[in-house]
Amino acid sequence: MKNTLFYNITIALSGLFAGGCITILFILVPFWKSLPPTELMVWFSHNGPHVGITMLPMQILPLLFTAYAYILARKNKEKSKEIWLYANISNGIILLMFVGYYLSVNLQFINQTMNPDDVAFELQRWEMIHIARTILAILSTVLAIVAYFRYEENRNTKITTTL
């Protein structure tokens, strides 16, 4: 029963991050693309830190929770352990994307150090990488759901067998 609650919280956290990515993709990115380069960087300087403070924990928590879910599933020899591992790998790739790309580019936007002539191209690249990040976030959530149902299926089989 304890694992059920933990797995549900993991699914909720993964879904929350995926929802944040979808919101950015379909609301913020089109808005950003409508702004002239210098206005975009001004927007980032005012709002970027707030978005980052919101999104970073939503990105890290699913990684930590899917890692622990994998450890629990492995320790308990659950059939869901491989699925939790794949969800964790997906979340790990998302974190690598942040460290390897978003951190430096977002800081350039926030600090307004990017050449305005490069902003349109960089925003296009930002969007493409964000699409990949969004797909990975959705994938991680779907995998967590599948892992949970695999766990429940296995748990229900054990309960039925013991009756």
Automatic annotation (TrEMBL):
Keywords: Membrane, Transmembrane, Transmembrane helix. The chain crosses the membrane at residues 7-32, 52-71, 83-104, 131-149. The keyword Transmembrane applies. PROSITE patterns: PROKAR_LIPOPROTEIN. This is DUF1772 domain-containing protein.
